[in-house]
Amino acid sequence: MTAGCTSFRVGEAGWTADTTHGPVGARCGRFLVLDVVALAVAAAVACVSSPLSFAAAVTMHGPALAVAGAAIVAILAACCGYRSTGRAILHPAPVRAAVVVAAALAAVAVARLAPGALSAAELRVVLVFLAAALALVPLLASAYRALLVQPPLEERVVLVGSGPLAEALAFGIAQHRHLGLRLAGHVTDAPGASAHALGPRLGGTRDLTNLLREFDIARVVLAGAPIDAATEELLLDTKLGGLPVDSGVAFFEGLYERMPIDARLGVLLESQGFVPGPGFAFAKRALDLALAASGLVLLAPVLAVAALAIKLSSPGPVLYGQIRLGRGGQRFRLWKLRSMHVGAERGRGAVCAESGDPRVTAVGRFLRRSRLDEVPQLWNVLRGDMSVVGPRPERPELFESLVERYPMFRYRTAVRPGLTGWAQVRQGYVSQVDGFGVKLSYDLFYLKNRSLALDLRVLWHTAGELVRLKGV
Questions:
Q1: Interatomic CA distance for residues 455 and 46, integer angstroms
Q2: Three-state DSSP class for 44?
Q3: Whether 257 contacts 18, CB under 8 Å
Q4: Pairing mode, if any, of strands 17-18 and 387-389?
């Protein structure tokens, strides 16, 4: 796991829980409403500041303010997401302030670089709008986040069942208090099972109707317990009565933004997702070509300097080619700037690099930390071997052993592998086989929820990783 993450393992691989990211769509979506309200108020303030009458200011400056507001919401949606906690919910004020400041700088840049795009009066109104947004947007988001954890607004959750899934959900609820969720306890017909992790046992499934009223339960989560026909009828009545009843797998996915790899294939097959929207493939490929072509052109001077440093620091070629598995299990040669001594795997075979690996050269250490060693893979993206975003490609000799350990690992080859991916930005680099289970759970989440918005979130987090030199 990356530094700063907390993890624990319950049962077999796949129910390991990390505490840095989380759920649950309904409450997170309210941040979108708050942002829109704050931007609308900021727009009203900007129109009032205009020397024109309010109605005339709305008519004249409304389109420019609408574009600026829509850009702010789009950036927040793409980079942070409104259906997950992400940084937008965990740290609402700093993220929103940064986005608004970036929008202000962009407005000034547009006014200077394209003088006809914004008149002086429009620029002044837009900057007043952004100044008001800088105060209102973070303030409302932070206030709502603070209110969520107050007892009157907390949503009391009960888990039906016990075992590894229930423990992972209980742990996640406790670690995501900012969502306003509180675990009331669990209901099970097996007294004493995992009680230390699941909170108090409230009773058995036959008592569920009375327990929901007695403990003021707002949400029921089915955490893997066998359910008989009578309990199914009771739960359906509960759901029809307006109380949410969630599956444990879906709740886990929303809570951690990854898929439980111990779930039955039938559960994944019946769940929504795995089929991206119309036009996604075309738009994703267009984005790949644009980013790869522009990246190779812009980074050509950097690659030239890196190539010279590699040649001067250690004998051997500048580029290093390695066979990896692409979409459908097709083999291709992946290119990297050489960061290790020649013959680093001689006598050892395929071994993942580790922090402080002695095989890495002095120049290679910087290249790996800055991820510059991966830049030649933009050529693989242009060729169509890879995408900019997707599961990282594995070596054939490692792939077979990983499929044997984690049978769902083979589904990662359903799409083009990526230069960066959801697992990379959420979990970080993995050097031990045990860590690939959690990595797989993030990759399955990506496969299920593929979209341009998710790709943009990955790119946003990747940029942050590059700035912090988080490579290995």
A1: 34
A2: helix
A3: no
A4: unpaired
Residue with tokens 């829509």, as numbered in its chain: 70
Per DSSP, helices labelled H in 241-390 are 248-256, 265-270, 280-298, 300-313, 362-370, 377-383
The Cβ of residue 98 has, within 10 Å, a number of other Cβ atoms equal to 15
| Token digits of residue 187 | 């209901």
Q: How many CB atoms lie within 10 A of CB 294?
A: 11
Domain 150-270 fold = Rossmann fold (3.40.50)
Q: Are 198 and 204 in contact (CB under 8 A)?
A: no
- Look at residue 214 and tell me whether its pLDDT is greater than 70: yes
Measure the CA–CA gap between 37 and 27, rounded to whole angstroms: 16
Question: Domain limits of the chain?
Answer: 25-148, 150-270, 280-467
CA-wise closest residue to 393 among 413, 370, 379, 377 = 413
Query: Quick check: 415 and 274 in contact, CB under 8 A?
Result: no
Distance CA(329)–CA(311), nearest Å, equals 34
**Global pTM?**
0.75
Q: What is the DSSP letter of 372?
A: G
For 375, the token pair is 């830049």
In this predicted structure, the answer to whether residue 1 has a pLDDT above a threshold of 50 is: no
